[in-house]
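Example record used in the benchmark description.
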Amino acid sequence: MSNKGITLSRLLGILGLLKPVSSFFIGLASFAAFCGASPRDPRPGWWLLLGICFLAGGCSAVNQWQESDLDALMARTRGRPLPSGRVGRGFALCLGLFFFVAGLSILCLKQPWIVTAMGLAGATWYNLIYTPLKARNGLAAFPGTLPGCLLPMLGWEAAGKIPDAVPALLVLGFSGLWQIVHVALLCIWWEEDHENSPNPNLYKALGYRGVTLLAATGMIGTGGLAVVLQLNDLMKSQAGAAIFRGFSLALLIMGFAVLFEKPSSEARRGIFIAWHLWLGVGLLLVIFGYFSEPHG
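Model output (C-alpha cells):
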C-alpha cells in the first residue's frame, strides 16, 4: 500500500475513533438546552458545545479501546478502527485521553465548576461503569442513559437558568427514553447480529418482541406528546413548532408500524435514521429560534 493510502486509512481510523458526527450530536443536545434557557450572552454556549464535543470524542475512543476484543465478534462493529487494524490500541487510548483532557479543560476554563463536575461524572460513568457493566448484563442500557440525561442539565447550568420542575423532569425523562429507544432500534436493525452475539445485550434480555414493544411505545409516546405540547415558546416561532409537529406525527406513524408489523431490513435502517433525524431537527429548531432573537 502507498504512503498516501496508509495516511488516508489512519486518518479515517482517527475519525472512526472520535465519531465526530455522534460527538457533535451529543454537544448539540447540551447547546440546545443552553439556547432553550434563553441566556442573554450566547458565548458560553459555544464553549460548552466545543468542550462537550471534545469530551464525547475522547470517551468514544477510550470506549473502543475498552471493547476492541468484543467489537471484533460482531458484524456491526468489526469494521471499527481497532478490530480492523487501522490504528493501534496504544494510539487509540492516547488519542482518547488527549481529547478527554482537552474537553474537560475547556469546560473548566470557560464554564461554572458544576458544569465541569457533571461532565466528568458523565464521562466516568460511561467509561468506567456502563462500559464494563454492559459486557455482563444486557439490561445495562438502562443505567447507561445517565450521561445522556446530564446533557440538558449541562446546558441549563451553563446558561445559569434552571427550568421549573415539571418541564425539567419532562426533558430529563425524554433524554433517558430517547437513548433506550435508540438501543432498541439498533437491536431491531441488527437483529441477527445481536441474537447471535456471544455478549449480553438488550435483544437477548428482552427478545425481539420486547425490544420492538420498547421502541414502538417510546416512539408513539414521544411523538404523540410532541404533537400535543405547545412548543411555540421553546422554538420561538409558530412555524418552527409546526415543522416539528409534522416530524413528530411521522414518528408516531412509524411507531405504530413497528408495533404491528415486522419491517424489512431497509425499513428498520430508515426508522433508526428517522429517530435521530427527528431529535436533530428539534434541537436545531430550538437553536435557530434562540438566535433569531436579539441578544446583548
